[in-house]
Write a structure and sequence with these properties.
The protein contains six helices and seven strands, in the order E-H-E-H-E-H-E-H-E-H-E-H-E. Helix 1 (28-39) packs across helix 6 (229-240). It has a single domain (19-254), classed as Rossmann fold (3-Layer(aba) Sandwich), CATH 3.40.50.720. Helices cover 39% and strands 14% of the residues. The radius of gyration is 17 Å and the shape is globular. The chain has 260 residues and is of the alpha/beta class. 47% of the residues are buried. The structure holds nicotinamide-adenine-dinucleotide. Nicotinamide-adenine-dinucleotide binds next to helix 1 and helix 4. Nicotinamide-adenine-dinucleotide is lined by residues 23-24, 26-30, 48-50, 53, 73-76, 101-105, 124, 128, 150, 152, 195, 197-198, 200-203.
Length: 260
């Protein structure tokens, strides 16, 4: 149901010779992003805490004629992140692009959020992206490449029952801007995308608390449908490409007009 298109036709080849790491590559937006980079000629490290899923995405890229490797990595673990980035650079000899897609989400009444749940959300969604950026930056500085982080419309506007998720995604938006101004003079570009409701397995985790009406939340865009993973992947690839050389520190909303 959530299979992504492979873009074998009418697709550009903007990443030939480039090496890319995509986190969260086992599923949803990360899977679609890894496949998009693979279809555009990149050598892709498909990283995920789900090792089998990461390898399955890499295998699909290879079967479609691309180059890819699976890599197990929990982005919230500093040692695992350092090892995964070092392995990726060792395998492909360089690193041009980091796409930070891995993330988790859930609706919960704030009074019911445990300390552990709050910390887990922040450590995967925000600290995980920071750790990946920190480990990747020395390599991306050498290739003068680009980083694309995945935030959310929940990082730009309020969502009920989402204090931890909103805090983590708002953090990604501002971390992206901070890195963009820190590294812009060295030629790096660091941007983020802010998807609205996208049809991926993550959506199943966003169940409203008991007794809360669906009217509390509108996830449908004026286009009358949810987004598809490849529609976010295309924006991530654009931001990482030389079609976007004057876009830096931006938060690109990909929500079909939901928060317009
Ligand atoms: N689907 C949406 O509507 C939506 C909207 C806005 C933002 N996003 C963001 O997009 C990103 C991708 O979400 P998705 O919808 O594709 O979800 P998904 O559940 O389909 O994929 C998320 C992937 O991240 C991986 N992951 C989770 N924890 C990890 C960890 N600690 N280390 C490494 N990998 C880990 C999972 O194994 C999974 O493969 C997330 O950051 C999410 O917050 C999604």
């Amino acid at each position: 149901m959530f299979h992504s298109r492979l873009y074998r036709e009418n697709v550009m080849n903007r990443f030939a010779g480039r090496a890319v790491i995509v986190t969260g590559a086992a599923s949803g937006i990360g899977e679609a992003t890894a496949k998009r980079f693979g279809a555009e000629g990149a050598r892709v490290t498909c990283a995920d805490v789900n090792e089998a899923g990461a390898e399955a995405t890499a295998a699909a890229i290879r079967e479609a004629g691309g180059q890819a490797r699976g890599a197990v990595c929990d982005v919230s673990n500093p040692d695992a992140v350092k090892a995964a980035v070092a392995d990726a650079v060792g395998a492909y000899g360089q690193l041009d692009v980091l796409a930070n897609v891995a993330g988790i989400g859930a609706f919960q009444r704030t009074t019911e959020v445990t300390f552990e749940q709050w910390n887990r959300m922040l450590s995967i969604n925000l600290t995980g992206q920071f750790l990946m950026c920190q480990a990747a930056l020395p390599h991306i500085l050498k290739t003068v490449g680009a980083i694309v982080n995945v935030a959310s419309v929940a990082g730009l506007k309020s969502h009920p029952y989402s204090a931890a998720y909103c805090a983590s995604k708002g953090g990604v938006v501002l971390m992206t801007k901070a890195l963009a101004v820190e590294y812009g003079r060295k030629g790096l570009r660091i941007n983020c995308v802010c998807p609205g409701g996208i049809e991926t397995p993550l959506i199943a985790h966003f169940q409203l608390p008991d007794g809360v009406s669906q009217a509390a939340l509108s996830r449908i865009s004026p286009l009358g449908r949810m987004g598809l993973p490849h529609e976010v992947a295309g924006t991530i690839a654009f931001l990482a490409s030389e079609d976007a050389t004057y876009i830096n520190g931006a938060s690109i909303v990909v929500d079909g007009g939901m928060i317009a």
